[in-house]
Design brief:
CheY-like_superfamily, alpha/beta, Stage 0 sporulation protein A homolog, phosphorelay response regulator activity, four-stranded antiparallel sheet, two-component regulatory system, Arc Repressor Mutant, subunit A, Rossmann fold, transcription regulation, single chain
Length: about 230
């Protein structure tokens, strides 16, 4: 597992034992950690501490985790992993609809939490991880450079952002609308078929003639498959 030093985490849970356990473990991994036992404190701390990730319990007295998520996603650039003790699909859907980035069921292993944190950093704050290696890809966000099979790819700025987004979300089907929103921006007013043009160019540069690396799922979008 790559180093998580310098990553700031806010833990929010009304159970002191859980907070203490997670705080000790995350501090030992080199993360900067703050804790809160209620929603209002969490909102205030988030604005002051500016965490990269919030581990947020759903069931809390007063302001619950859903409301905390809703408020912070409006104003803060933060990844939110929600925790719940209830195996309820409706809760998961509600949290994700409000902007949560991931969901974990209690009880969970500390190792799984670390893996989820690393995944969120890779996806939302890749520059904090330095170089990210996924399969045959090496992404260096500081140099805006991607290597594939130890070869530097000659990419335009948009090609770089598109390939980085797809590789970081490898295994996930990405619709054209999702790609446009994340790579071109929500206010892009052009034709969504521009995605096809850039995908074609990336396949050429990756020598992906048989579309085994960047797959097309008709009617759904694209998926990067990395063995």
């Amino acid at each position: 597992m790559q180093s998580l030093k310098g990553i700031k985490i806010l833990l929010v849970d009304d159970e002191p034992n859980i907070l203490q356990f997670l705080e000790m473990g995350l501090l030992n991994e080199g993360l900067e950690v703050q804790t809160a036992q209620d929603g209002m404190t969490a909102v205030t701390l988030a604005k002051e501490f500016q965490p990269h990730i919030i581990i947020l319990d759903v069931m809390m007295p007063g302001m619950d985790g859903f409301e905390v998520c809703r408020m912070l996603k409006k104003t803060e650039n933060v990844a939110i992993i929600m925790l719940t003790a209830k195996d309820e699909v409706d809760d998961r859907v509600k949290g994700l609809t409000l902007g949560a980035d991931d969901y974990m069921m209690k009880p969970f292993s500390f190792e799984e939490l670390l893996a989820r944190i690393q995944a969120r950093i890779r996806n939302q704050f890749p520059n904090l991880m330095g170089e990210v290696v996924i399969g045959d890809f090496r992404i260096d966000d500081r140099r805006k450079e991607i290597l594939y099979q130890q070869r530097v790819l000659e990419l335009s700025t948009t090609e770089y952002e598109l390939l980085k987004f797809m590789v970081l979300n490898q295994g996930i089907v990405l619709s054209k609308a999702k790609i446009l929103d994340k790579v071109w921006g929500y206010d892009f007013g052009g034709d969504e078929n521009i995605v096809e043009v850039y995908i074609r160019s990336l396949r050429d540069k990756l020598n992906d003639k048989e579309h085994r690396l960047i797959r097309t799922l008709r009617g759904a979008g694209y998926r990067v498959d990395i063995s």
